[in-house]
Amino acid sequence: MELSVLLFLAVLMGLLLLLVKGHPNARGHLPPGPHPLPLLGNLLQMDRGGLLKSFSRLRERYGDVFTVYLGRRPAVMLCGIEAIKEALVDQAEDFSGRGKIAILETVFQGYGVFFANGDHWKTLRRFSLATMRDFGMGKRSVEERIQEEAQCLVEELRKSKGALLDLAFLFQCITANIICSIVFGKRFDYKDEEFLKLLDLSYQSSSLISSFSGQMFELFSDFLQFFPGPHRQVYKNLQEISAFIGRSVDKHRETLDPSAPRDLIDAYLLRMEKEKSNPHSEFNQKNLILNTLSLFFAGTETTSITLRYGFLLMLKHPHVAERVHKEIEQVIGKHRPPALEDRVKMPYTDAVIHEIQRFSDIAPIAGLPHLSCDTEVFPILNSALHDPRYFEKPDAFNPDHFLDANGALKKNEAFIPFSLGKRICLGEGIAKAELFLFFTTILQNFSLASPVAPENIDITPQENGLGKLPQQYQIRFLPRQRG
């Protein structure tokens, strides 16, 4: 018998076994939802227009909490701020688990702050939050590092001399450099070859995870893991980043001064030394590398994409950009860099940044699943951020959504771009600081221009797996007068 026939029979037998195993069990106590097919789950019932349209349609039929089968796996979807809060806040402990991402499982294996569970996760989260807040016991604050990076960006934009730019690369550089500064204790030049390699590996991996083949792997990883596919390239890429982190850890160990920790790696090494007699300690070499990988991998794309979307919206709505310019001149002036303390005096600018986050909605379906009673749970953040009960014109860009009658910043409980509960985004504080300082520093120094008239600029989001991206665009930065 030819080898090809044997391979065909082996694949056929594998599919039959999966089909038998893959028939979903009875729903038990799961919320209602469409009836799944064996192996495929509800895949064929998904709308061609995208997952969000599918979930919106299912919500109309089954209510704010419903079940869909992602292949053989049941997943509960939470829609609306009330359902999301009831689960993630009112029952925070029950929903604090983290489900698996199949394409990343061979790399992380439950290690690192994003994929750990139980007491392992609590210990790593407490340490990571405290270290990022305190940042090396009296060393330069995160704010100062963002301000420094913002000035480096301004110099880079000045070099363009008003030429058309695509912002994707530069915004990826600045957000990655903030994470590098916190974790590795240094920033990289935008032309540094090692830095460019790290960015390329990270971007390539994110793209593969979000791709159609990446999404198919998530659904059918039990079978597809044995064949070539995006999972193998993602594994190779993240191993390469891990190797870089490992080399950096070795250098830190050689130059470590216990009295003056420089960054997160130093702080971790000191904790490792302190707990070296504890065989069950979370502070070991593997967790150090994978925790650092988690922070680097997760800390670059989201803020970078939000900034890209923000400046596209400024081109579309030049009157909004002009009001921000005026508020910057009134509060900050032209000769000192923006600081976080300025934010409370700049309600319009703050409202604009809030509305950029709400409108862009770059993670409409919280990308990493929660876990409750061994069932994956996905909060549909889009259902809160675009809820007409909380936002008068949910599908329009309108900073007035966050301003009261007196022009003061207005809180809105449905504004949850970082999710809620115990698994709320670890980098929320840093991301907010980056958005304010980068946004205001750029608009303090430059006016914006587009080769396309505002009425012809397309701000419709592009769905990208479980996320959204702005349309590609080019922009000119024209230096403002410093009178």
Automatic annotation (TrEMBL):
Matching SUPFAM superfamilies: Cytochrome P450
- What positions does the entry give for heme binding? C425
Requisite cofactors: heme
From the Swiss-Prot or TrEMBL record, state where the protein is found: Endoplasmic reticulum membrane; Microsome membrane
Q: Which GO terms describe its molecular function?
A: arachidonate epoxygenase activity; heme binding; iron ion binding; oxidoreductase activity, acting on paired donors, with incorporation or reduction of molecular oxygen, reduced flavin or flavoprotein as one donor, and incorporation of one atom of oxygen
Which biological process annotations from GO are given for this protein?
epoxygenase P450 pathway; xenobiotic metabolic process
What is the membrane topology noted in the UniProt record heading this document? Answer: Peripheral membrane protein
UniProt keyword annotation of Iron present: yes
Q: Tell me if Oxidoreductase is a UniProt keyword of this record.
A: yes
Give a Gene Ontology cellular component term annotated to this protein.
endoplasmic reticulum membrane
Question: Which branch of life, at top level?
Answer: Eukaryota
Which PROSITE patterns does the entry mention?
CYTOCHROME_P450
Signal peptide positions are 1-22
Sorted keywords for this record are:
Endoplasmic reticulum, Heme, Iron, Membrane, Metal-binding, Microsome, Monooxygenase, Oxidoreductase, Signal
PANTHER family the UniProt entry points to = CYTOCHROME P450 2B6 (PTHR24300:SF406), CYTOCHROME P450 508A4-RELATED (PTHR24300)
UniProt similarity note: Belongs to the cytochrome P450 family.
What is the official name of this protein in its record?
Cytochrome P450 family 2 subfamily B member 6
